[in-house]
Amino acid sequence: MWKEKQLRKQRQRGMTLIEILVVLVLLGIVMAIVAGNFIGQGEKAKADAARIEIQQISQSLDLFKLEIGRYPTQSEGLQALVTKPSGLNRWNGPYGKHTQVPKDPWQNEYKYVVPGKGGAPYEVISLGADGREGGEGADKDISSADL
After folding, report:
1. How far apart are CA 33 and CA 54, in angstroms?
2. In this predicted model, what pLDDT tens digit does every residue of 7-34 receive, in sequence order?
3. Degrees (nearest 5) of the Cα angle 126, 127, 128?
4. Contacts with 117 (C-beta within 8 Å, 6 or more apart), sequence order
5. pLDDT for 28-61, tens place per residue?
6. Residue 20, Cα to own-chain centre: how many angstroms?
7. Residue 103 CB: number of other CB atoms within 10 A?
8. How many angstroms separate the Cα of 134 from the Cα of each of 131, 138, 141?
C-alpha cells in the first residue's frame, strides 16, 4: 500500500522549472522565425503593390498622351491625370480610377520625371520604404524604367 502511494506521487509530480524554461525558449524561437517571415512578406507585398500601381499610372499617362498628344510636363506632373491643366481643351480626365494622385504603399508621393532614363519619355518612381533615393531591400527604389 505504501509503495503504491509513493508511485502515484511520482507520476503526479508535474514539470520542473527547467523543463518550463526550455519549452518557453523553444516557443520564442519558433515565434521569432514565424514573425520574421511575415515581416519580410509584408515589405515584399508593398513593393509588388508599388510595381502594379506604377504600371497603372503608366497606362493612365499613355491614355493622357493619346487624347492630348503629349505626356504631362514636369511642372504639370501626375496631377494632370486627375485635374485639368489650364489650356488643354481635349482633356477628358480623370485618367485612371483615382480622383487624386495616389501615394505609394509607404504613403510617399510618386516622383514623375520628364524625360525618363534610357530615352523614355517619362519615369514614375517610388522611393521605397525609406522615402529616399537609392537603398537596398525594402528601401530600394522602384521605377517604371525597370518594369
Report:
1. 32
2. 566 555 667 788 888 888 888 888 877 7
3. 95
4. 123, 143, 145
5. 888 877 776 676 678 888 999 999 999 999 999 9
6. 40
7. 12
8. 9, 11, 6
